[in-house]
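Suppose you are handed a protein chain with no further information: no name, no annotation, nothing but its sequence. What can you learn? This example shows the usual starting point.
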Amino acid sequence: MGKTIHWKFTVILLIVGFMVAVQFNSMQKPEERDTRDIWAIRHELSTEKQYHSELLTEIRELDQTISTYKSLNDTNAGKALSETVDNLYKQAGMTTISGPGIILNVRPSAESVAFGVPITGISPDLLTRFVNELNRFKGISLEIDGKRFTTLSSIRDINGVTSVNGLHISTPPFTIKIITPTMEDSEKLYNFLSASTIRDDFYLDNLLLVIGKPEANIEIRGYKERFENQFLREIPKGE
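A reasonable first move is to predict its three-dimensional structure. Written in structure tokens, the prediction is:
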């Protein structure tokens, strides 16, 4: 009888000890709380709503394209398909475009010139940070030192020289062209870049980022390289 009581008492102590250990561990590592203020949460909510709106716009455009194909006969379907392909080429940056935008000039800082600091090219890290800043804005087209920058473009260090699409970026000075959907978007981009800390990053590398005023018409050349099709294959007629 005494051994049974002793065994039960031991089990109870183990359970109590386990519960105390769990409670102590939870006190030592409390759950992380969201410490953001209401404005930070509202900003994130606004960003998510913007993404949602953009997705709905793309879905409506695709639905409209499908409806157009369904309503056309065989003769007009070829024309509609050709127009779709042209539009896709434009979205991919394969064609020369023009529109409202701004022109930026990257050049050595006055201090580096005055003190005889050797002029070096822009670093890949700085150029990447700059492009990431621009990606806050949707629908823009970008040309860096005469090289069209698209979703397929890459920024790399090749033999110590920063390159875009495998082509070397010139030692400053050089220009960067940005086209926006509307003139209002150009003004917003101008104000954003003027207040952005990215200009300080350029200055730390002995470079100046000079932001030009919004212009009504800027031309950007198309992406010169050809796309490599890795997955799509033409289906023979009759299949």
